[in-house]
Amino acid sequence: MNQNKLDPEHLIARDINSYLEIIFQLSKKNSGARCYRGQSNIAWKLKPSVMRDLRSGAENQILSELLVEAPNEFGSDKSMFDKLVRAQHYSLPTRLLDVTLNPLVALYFACEGNENRKNSGQVQIFDFTKTRVKFADSDTISIICNLSRLSDLERTKIKEEYNKHKKQTPWTDKELNTFRNTEEIQRLMQFVKAEKSYFLDKVKPVDLFRYFFVYPSKNNKRVIAQSGAFIAAGLLEYNAPENSAGIKLKTITIPAESKIDVIKQLDTLNINSRTMFPEIESTSNYIKKKWSL
C-alpha cells in the first residue's frame, strides 16, 4: 500500500481490504459529489452505450421505436431523463453513463463476467465540483437529455454553431441570440417545453459541452439496488473527461488474477448478481449457479 501512497496515478487493489484502503485514503476535499464506475476490461474506453457499436443516426431512432413499442412502460416518466434511465434499464443504448455511489458496487462490476475474466478490470473514481452536480428535475439535465431526440445532423450543426463563438468569453448578447435562435436549438427547446411548459429559451451554450453528475429519482429497483447515479455530458464525446475543469478522475486497477477472489469476498458481503439485479430472473440464475455441481 505504500506504493499506492507514493504513486496515486497507478493505484492497484488485489482484494477488498487493499481496495477500501485506497478509497479511504482519497481526499474528498471540495468535492460536490463522488461516484464510481467499474469496468471489467481495463482496455474499454469511457463511453456511454449510445456511443458504442451503433450505426450513424441510430440514437433518436432507437429511442423513438422503444417509446412507440412500449408506451405503458414509460407512462409514469415525466422527463426525458427518467425515460432514458428506464430505457437503459431495458438495455437500450443511451447517452447516460451509469455510475454508483457505492465503491463496492463499482468493484463488483470491475470483476464480474466470465468473458473478461482474463482481463484486468478498473474502477474509475469521479469527483465533481458542486456546480456540476444536478438532480433529476434540473432544467440543464432536461436540455442535455432531450438532445437524444435530435438527429445526428442537428447535433452536428449545434456543435458547428457553438465552435464559431466558443473562444469569445463572455458571449455577447448578439452571439447568444444567434445561437439560441438556430433552427436546431429551437427544436430542442420544443422538446424541453413539452415536459416543462414554464421553460424559457435561455439555454447556456457552454452547458451543452460540460460533464454533469445527476442524482436520479429513486423509482427504479435496479437504480436503488446499485446505489445508481448518472453522468450526463451533452455534446461531449468523453474524449478526455480528466481534463474537464469540473471533474477530478482517478483509476484503481484490479488485476485479472485477483478477480475470482474479489467476487467471492463481495459475495460474503451480499454483493452479487442477486442483489445487483433484483429482477426475478437474475435471482433465479444466482440460486441455480449457487447449487450447481
How would you describe what is shown here?
The protein is α/β, with parallel strands linked by helices and 293 residues long. The chain has one domain. The chain has helices at 2-6, 16-25, 58-69, 80-89, 103-111, 139-146, 152-165, 173-180, 183-195, 221-225, 259-268, 273-276, 280-290, and strands at 11-12, 33-39, 97-100, 121-128, 133-135, 212-215, 228-232, 247-254. The strands form 2 sheets. The chain has a 4-stranded mixed beta sheet. Strands 3-7-6-5 form a 4-stranded mixed beta sheet. It is globular, with a radius of gyration of 20 Å. It starts with a helix and ends with a helix. The mean pLDDT is 91.
Oligomer: single chain
Tell me, briefly, the overall form.
globular
Low-pLDDT segments? none
| DSSP, total strands | 8
Structural class: alpha/beta
| Total tally of structural domains | 1
Tell me the β content. 5-15%
**Spatial arrangement of strands, main beta sheet:** 1-8-4-2
Query: Which value, in Å, is the CA radius of gyration?
Result: 20 Å
Main sheet properties: 4 strands, mixed
What is the terminal-to-terminal distance?
38 Å
